[in-house]
Amino acid sequence: MKIFLSASIYGKQHLEDSCKKIVELTEKSGNTIVADHILDTTNEQMAQWKKDQDIKFHNFVMNGVKNSDAVFAEISHPSTSVGYLISLAAQAGKPVVCFYNGDKKPHLFNTLEEQNDKFIVIEYKSIEELNKLVPEMIEFIHEGQDTRFNFFVAPKHINYMNWIAKTRRIPRSVFLRRLIEEEMKKKEL
Questions:
Q1: Are 91 and 173 in a shared domain?
Q2: Which residues does the chain have with pLDDT short of 70?
Q3: Total domain count, the chain
């Protein structure tokens, strides 16, 4: 699977370690991640670019999103460009996972999460916490490529799953899949 990473180059001094960890864990899981445009580009380089270099970079990131299976975004540092790429990916129906390290999730993302089951925003407090979260989010992305199955549940069940999703910071579908897999293991014994 090919994942495109988006993050603010201007905020890179605050995000670089997180981005490197996301890249490391994604590659360790056997997936491909496109991130050199973030890790190898500096503010100083961008400030010196001429129009043709800006266009070339813009085309690279646009094609990166279009040609990926999913998008990871590190959104701790606000960026209009990152927001645009997130929107592009979401409109294309790609799974989008936004990681942030901060006090408060951006309000707009609450709406996007409610309206798009392939869109998730996940908070992390430390780089070490990414060791657990990135593999879970890769599982979430793989799940998005699986068969969709809809069913009705009582309000108390959805409230519980929403609580699980918030407290354990995993998508509801990942929680349900784990329950099913646990039952399948019991049957194998």
A1: no
A2: 144-149, 189
A3: 2
User: For the whole model, what pTM was predicted?
Assistant: 0.75
> Nearest 5°: phi and psi at 178?
-65, -40
Locate tokens 């979430």: which residue? 140
Specify which residues 34 forms β-bridges with.
Answer: 4
125 and 188 housed in the same domain: no
The answer to whether the beta carbons of residues 67 and 2 sit under 8 Å apart is yes
Residue 189's domain comprises 150-189
What CATH number is given to the structural domain containing 102?
3.40.50.450
Beta-strand runs (E) in the chain: 2-7, 32-34, 70-74, 96-100, 119-123
> What pLDDT is attached to residue 64?
93
pLDDT computed for residue 189 by the predictor: 58
What's the confidence (pLDDT) of residue 145? 63
> Which among 65, 13, 62 has a CA at the least distance from the CA of 42?
13
DSSP class of 42: -
Inter-residue contact 166 to 160 (CB < 8 Å):
no
Sign of CA dihedral 149, 151, 157, 163: positive
Tell whether 121 and 185 lie within a shared domain.
no
